[in-house]
Each structure stands twice: as structure tokens, then as C-alpha cells.
Design a protein that fits this description.
Length: 333
């Protein structure tokens, strides 16, 4: 890491396969950032514990998720890739930040309200304090920039508030992070309900395209994608379904939305959906090849996450020493 190099942190829960929304809104942008920043990308497995799961299946999912990052082209030399649970400073700092977070702030978190509604049988304390652990994830590495989707801006604002509050009491301790949201493609919507974000947890099997989907399934999902009765390929807020599909096409191809609109003027939805399916299939095919290669070389994958945890731990411990010193806690020499 260069002395003046800014730091980026982002974390994602290991829940099955990455979606095309994850790829466009996050991973595709990450690759463009690795030249300029020191990037840390964590599989935030501790956040996933708010939902009950099968331990053996969860372990497989975590490893698969890391391999998917690698298959997307993230360079483990330029980027620090690691599991959150393997860096104990995350939970250590989370407890400290809990003492500088307010109940009223956490009560206002939209995602807590939404998840509590979906999991009424398991509204646990971790679900409530989830944003504080997320703040610890970010502040632990003196993060300058956090690439977030629009739905995570509220959590990042809380992280900023906690950092400013702590700094005001104890002096400059944490870098106050800024957010990075790409101008287009930051929020890919559901294929079935284009007013909702595409989600790995959507119960409708045709709402989400996964990077691990079979080629014929991708075509089927796009054919079934909700549009409207106009049968006009237009990048318009009045046509949210087709606008979402144009956004997917534009962010992957690099072609401007209005150029795509002109290209398919008078051609209708059928031709457009077929071409978009072919574009997605060709984009995803190299990912699947690399994924299979990594999964067949698990010793190498193990080396990557062990090295990532060591590098992340070294950075995290620098922050924790500063935090403890500023709080008056006794540091081990």
C-alpha cells in the first residue's frame, strides 16, 4: 500500500450466488477502483448470523462467495479479500461503537424495519445493532470511500455520525468516510417488480438473474421480465421495467441508454430482450469458467483468504491501538 493511497472498504453477505445487480452495482465498479485505491472487500459472514442457517451449507456458501469474487476478476494481490469473522477487531470495535450509538438512531434504520417485518419469528438484537457492526467494518480500516448502493446510504450516514461523534469527544481517531455511487447502474431493479431492487433473497424465481444461472434460464427470465403494453424500447421513468433492462444493457455494454433506445426504435421488446440475453450470457461465460477453475484449486483459495485476513488484521490493529489509547484503555506493549 502506498503512503498516500486512499482506502476503500466494502462488505457483502454470503448469500448464494451473486446477482447481475451485484455485478453491475458493485463488483464491476470495484475492478475499476483497484488501480487508484487500496481496496478491502470482506465477506461479512458475521452479519449473516442474524438469520438461522445450516452450518455446513453456510460454510460452503461462504467459500463459494469468495470464489465468485475471484471469478469476477478481483486481483487478490491488489485487493485484500477476507472473511470478516477472521479479523476479531471487527467485533471488538463494534462493542465500543455501540457505546457511542443511540437507540433513536438505530430505531430509524429502514432495513431493520423491513427485515423485522420479514422475520417476525426472529427479531434478534443482532438485527437491531447490525448497523453498528457495519460502522465498525468501515471505520476499522480508516476508510476514505465506501462504494454503496442507494439502499445502504442510511447505514453509511450512521457510520459518519458515529465517527464524527467519537472524534469530537476523543480527538481525531477515525477517518470520516465518503460514499461512492456510480452514476448509472448503482441500483438494478427486480425483473418482476421494477419498483423494487433486485435481491438475492427474492422469493420470485424470475425476479433475479444470478451469475451462476444456466444460459437457457437467463433467456427465460428476460423473456418473462415485466415491461408494459407500449412495446417501445424507451429509457423513460414512465416505463420502469424496460428502463431497468436498458440500464443493465448500458452498464454492461458501455453504450449510452439513448443510443440503445435509438438502436431498437420500432423493433419491440422481443428483439431487445433476446439481444440482452445474449449479451449477458457472453458476459457471464468467462466468469463461470474461472469459477470452476478456482473451485478445483481450493488450496490456492485458502492461501488467498488467509493472506487477506493477515493483511486486514495488521491494518485493523493499528486503528484499535489508537482507539484504546484515546479511550484510556490499557494497551499491551
Amino acid at each position: 500500500m502506498e503512503a498516500n493511497q486512499k482506502i476503500i472498504f466494502s462488505g457483502a453477505q454470503p448469500t448464494g450466488s451473486l446477482t447481475i445487480g451485484n455485478y453491475i452495482g458493485a463488483v464491476k465498479n470495484w475492478k475499476a477502483l483497484e488501480e487508484e485505491y487500496q481496496c478491502l472487500y470482506s465477506i461479512v459472514d458475521l452479519h449473516s448470523l442474524t438469520i438461522r442457517h445450516n452450518p455446513e451449507e453456510f460454510r460452503k456458501t461462504c467459500l463459494s462467495f469468495l470464489v465468485q469474487y475471484l471469478a469476477c476478476g478481483l486481483n487478490p494481490e491488489r485487493n485484500i479479500l477476507f472473511f470478516q469473522s477472521q479479523v476479531p477487531q471487527h467485533t471488538e470495535l463494534a462493542w465500543i461503537l455501540n457505546c457511542y450509538s443511540y437507540i433513536g438512531e438505530l430505531n430509524r434504520m429502514t432495513q431493520f424495519k423491513e427485515k423485522s417485518e420479514r422475520h417476525k419469528d426472529n427479531i434478534n438484537t443482532g438485527l437491531f445493532t447490525y448497523p453498528v457492526l457495519q460502522a465498525a467494518d468501515i471505520l476499522l480500516y480508516q476508510t476514505d470511500v465506501v462504494p454503496v448502493g442507494e439502499d445502504q446510504k442510511q447505514h453509511l450516514e450512521l457510520s459518519r455520525d458515529i465517527a464524527i461523534r467519537f472524534n469530537n469527544i476523543y480527538g481525531e481517531t477515525f477517518t470520516v468516510p465518503e460514499h461512492h455511487i456510480p452514476k448509472m447502474g448503482a441500483k438494478i431493479m427486480s425483473l418482476q417488480e421494477p419498483e423494487k431492487k433486485m435481491s438475492k433473497s427474492d422469493e420470485n424465481p424470475y425476479a433475479t438473474i444470478y451469475l451462476m444461472d444456466a444460459e437457457d434460464l437467463i433467456l427465460t427470465k428476460l423473456k418473462k421480465a415485466v415491461t408494459d403494453a407500449e412495446n417501445r424500447v424507451a429509457y423513460s421513468d414512465n416505463q420502469p421495467g424496460i428502463k431497468n433492462l436498458i440500464t443493465i444493457y448500458a452498464t454492461i455494454s458501455g453504450i449510452e441508454p439513448l443510443e440503445i433506445q435509438e438502436k431498437y426504435d420500432g423493433k419491440g421488446y422481443g428483439a431487445f430482450k433476446k439481444d440482452l440475453a445474449e449479451l449477458l450470457i457472453e458476459t457471464i461465460r468467462p466468469f463461470k469458467t474461472r469459477y470452476a477453475e478456482y473451485m478445483a484449486n481450493m488450496d490456492y483459495v485458502t492461501q488467498i483468504y488467509k493472506s487477506g485476513a493477515e493483511r486486514a488484521t495488521a491494518m485493523a490493529e493499528k486503528t484499535m491501538k489508537k482507539v484504546k489509547e484515546n479511550l484510556g484503555l490499557i494497551n499491551l506493549k
